[in-house]
Amino acid sequence: MVNNMSTRGYLTRAVQFFLGLDGVLHLLEVVSAVNEGAKITAILTSIHACIFFAGVYFVGHDHGHHEKEVEV
Questions:
Q1: DSSP letters of the chain?
Q2: pLDDT per position as a tens digit, 22-52
């Protein structure tokens, strides 16, 4: 298999990686907030982590409309 990934593909993967890493760091922050008894901070950071993980999912998916090719 030939690696035919474009510059855009590499940038997309890099953005996905760093968004995912940031989401993991937010999860660690949630654990820290729970250990400190900061419930509101833990809740807000959990929401923020979910937003980052949703970003990881949506960045890597093409949401354009694809039409089926019609054979004549």
A1: ------HHHHHHHHHHHHHHHHHHHHHHHHHHHHHHT-HHHHHHHHHHHHHHHHHHHHHTS--S--PPPPP-
A2: 989 999 999 999 999 999 999 999 999 999 8
- Residue 45 burial (C-beta neighbours within 10 Å; 0-12, 13-18, 19+): buried
**In this structure, what are the phi and psi dihedrals at residue 3, rounded to the nearest 5 degrees?**
-80, 105
Give, in order, the Cα–Cα distances in Å from 51 to each of 4, 5, 10, 26, 69.
30, 27, 22, 11, 35
CA-wise closest residue to 25 among 10, 46, 41: 46
